[in-house]
Each structure stands twice: as C-alpha cells, then as structure tokens.
Amino acid sequence: MAVAFAITAWLLNGMDVSGGFFSYLWIAALFGVINAILGTILRILTLPLTIITFGLSAVLVNALLLNITDGLSDSLTIDEFWWTAVWAAIILAFVSVCLQALASAFLKPDVPA
C-alpha cells in the first residue's frame, strides 16, 4: 500500500507525501487502520446508497477516508476534497489492484501439474 501511495502522489498534483520511505509506510499503516475501523462502519451505513449508485459512492467513502488520514497526519497533504481526494481514491484503488495482481503473479509458487 505504501508503494501505491507513492505512485498516486507521483501521478496526482494535489496530493503530496512529505518525507521519505517511512512516511509512506506511516501513511499506508494509518490509512489501513482508518479504513479497517471507520471504513467498515461507513460502508455499512452507506450500503443502500452504494447499491443504488452501483458502487460509485464507495469512491466517495474512500475519498473521505483519505481526507481523515490527511487530517491525522502531517506527512500527507491533499488540496481539495472533491477533485483531489476523489481522484486520489480512484488512482489509489487502481494502482493497489494492479500491484496486488503483479505481486500474486510473481509470488505464486510454481506447482507442477
């Protein structure tokens, strides 16, 4: 997730992570804890809206979680909620899915048939 944050900060102008390697690890860990606790509650509360919007409201929940992470950490800076946080949520989700697929392709043990 830290690599996904690094790629997202590199791609998106309004999002900045100040510091080095450990800042990315801190942001990823903090976002993971916020996502696990508060994200679960928000996803349950917004489940009807998520069903109605075919999952598009989940992007707004992730953007809100990114803004909460921004508020709790000095290392992460997000300019605006609407454009920067929403685009950061979309890019972060896409990059993390790609990295997970790449990691599972390379880390999967070769099992002879």
Explained architecture:
- There is one protein chain.
- The chain is mostly helical.
- The chain has one domain (2-96).
- The protein contains five helices and two strands, in the order H-E-H-H-H-E-H.
Terminal CA distance reads 33 Å
Number of domains: 1
Helices and strands, in N-to-C order?
HEHHHEH
Average pLDDT taken over every residue: 91
**Helix content percent band:** over 70%
Class from secondary-structure proportions? mainly alpha
- Outline the biggest β-sheet: 2 strands, antiparallel
Q: Strand fraction band?
A: 5-15%
Shape: globular
Note poorly predicted spans: none
Can you count the beta strands?
2
Radius of gyration: 15 Å
Number of helices: 5
Major beta sheet, strand line-up = 1-2
Q: What are the key terms here?
A:
113 residues; single chain; mainly alpha; two-stranded antiparallel ribbon
Summary?
With 113 residues, this protein is mainly alpha-helical.
How are the elements arranged and paired?
Blueprint: H1 2-11, E1 15-17, H2 21-45, H3 47-52, H4 57-72, E2 76-78, H5 81-107
Antiparallel strand pairs: 1-2
Helix pairs in contact: 1-2, 1-5, 2-4, 4-5
